[in-house]
Amino acid sequence: QVQLVESGGGSVQAGGSLRLSCIASVCTYGRISMGWFRQAPGKEREGVAAIDSAGTTNYADSVKGRFTISRDNAKNILYLQMDSLKPEDSAMYYCAADCFNGWAGLSALLYTNWGQGTQVIVAS
Question: How confident is the model at residue 49 (pLDDT cuts 50, 70, 90)?
Fold first, then answer.
């Protein structure tokens, strides 16, 4: 079981930036893969970006070139730098982790540990 705590959400004007952070506990065994997901009201949860233990990243087409996922392995912190934000980026953002799948996947089914979420609102 991995404990996850997100922070960094808030309100911003379109075109602005936010950085989300997720503090994670360490996998007891296995190597941790982590991702960011988001869910807007009335919509399904979607994968935004993911990173595996080797640093391989994966992004949803809708955020490529605007969002950057990174991790500080020494501090067990996952980041999501979000630039050029659009109103359609507004959602609850969730940090996710898994110690076994080994993939930087964007399917929620790959992750067994989830944070409580942090709200992002982008005003037009």
Answer: very high
